[in-house]
Amino acid sequence: MNPSLCRRGRRGSIHLEDGTYLEGCGFGAEGTRVGEVVFTTAMNGYVEALTDPSYKGQILVFTHPLIGNYGVPEPKWMDGVLLNMESERIQVEGVIVAEETEPSKWNAAASLHQWLSSQGVPGVSGVDTRMLVRKLRMVGSMMGTISSGRDGDPDMKWRYDDVDFTEQTSPRGVIVHGGGSDVLVVVDCGVKHGILRELLARGFQVVRVPCKSSPEDVLKLRPRGIIFSNGPGNPNLLSGLVETFRGLAEEHIPILGICLGHQVAALAMGGRVRKMRFGHRAINKPVIEEETKSCFVTTHNHGYGVYPEDVPPNMRIWFRNPDDGVVEGLMHEELPIMTTQFHPEARAGPRDAAWVFDSFARVVRSGGH
To answer: SS in 3 state form for the chain?
Structure first.
């Protein structure tokens, strides 16, 4: 790619571990980053996607051809929770788009290029994202490097599946939001602020604790209910978190597991979690509620899954994905434990499944029944 043909006057490149090399135009910050290359089919919500802690350690490909149209807003806060982003910073290692655009919206405080530049995240545009996504669908997610404004080292010195990324996305101490009389403890492995907003909207006081907290750390806060949050990386590395879940389950306190929390629940109860070929990342994924056979359109971001044959004993399938059969939610037959692999909250995205929080709130306020 001739840099003079690029709007930023900067070349960009992508190396994949299978030897694929793509040239494009660099934007965002100059530099080279390494990560697992994954894709999302969402047509909007790039601000929320890029700030989702579950993308830590990954280079994100957008399938929608134009990214940046409405720019990036100023962060808005209420009760210490972001209203228009999912965390305080961009979490991805890099961004790949077909075309990076200038914003045209009244509340755009920065362009995508300016935002990435300010946070040190490189981007590459002008590549055939259709070809790239087709390769990832056939071969599976793979490691890669992204370079903007310089030649990158194609040597991938680490593997995504071998790193505990929750150490980079979990808070270092306790964080309290809201003033409700009923306390919910969020075991925070990289919680999306959308989850916090939904809990606060139902009148709870939300107390976030680090992902590595012990059962004793959680119980001393006297929670009425516990949420194991979403977060990045391989759940099979999180043996301590699995033990914490198992210990808290024995207390018969209502527990809701979301995304990574769903996977941790499956492991804690004796099930299995496996790497998916390319995962689910979108805001338009269907799930079927098993009892009613109702279909809900939901938001997803996961590369690991529980399959029907991996469901733990004493748990039943609550939701499943009709496309590939992956288990999207579990209910325990005896304990007040419910989980969703998808995100019941959504911004941007459908609100079909926000009622899951209402169901959990009823269980919490009824004492686990």
So the answer is: CCHHHCCCCCEEEEEECCCCEEEEEEEECCEEEEEEEEEECCCCCHHHHHCCHHHCCEEEEECCCEECCCCECCCCEECCEECCCCCCCCCCCEEECCEECCCCCCCCCECHHHHHHHCCCEEEECCCHHHHHHHHHHHCCEEEEEEECCCCCCCCCCCHHHCCCHHHHCCCCCEEECCCCCEEEEEECCCCHHHHHHHHHCCCEEEEEECCCCHHHHHCCCCCEEEECCCCCCHHHCHHHHHHHHHHHCCCCCEEEECHHHHHHHHHCCCCCEEEEEEEEEEEEEEEECCCCCEEEEEEEEEEEECHHHCCCCEEEEEECCCCCCEEEEEECCCCEEEECCECCCCCCCCCCCHHHHHHHHHHHCCCC
Q: 166-365 domain in CATH 3.40.50.880?
A: yes
Give how far the C-alpha of residue 247 lies from the chain's centroid of Cα atoms, to the nearest Å: 25
231-258 per-position pLDDT tens digit: 999 999 999 999 999 999 999 999 999 9
Active-site residue set: 259, 343, 345
Q: Domain spans of the chain?
A: 3-162, 166-365
Residues 24-65 pLDDT 10s: 999 999 999 999 999 999 999 999 999 999 999 999 999 999
CB 228 within 8 A of CB 256: yes
CATH number of the domain at 3-162, please?
A: 3.50.30.20
| Among the listed residues 217, 196, 208, 221, the one whose alpha carbon sits nearest the alpha carbon of residue 171 | 208
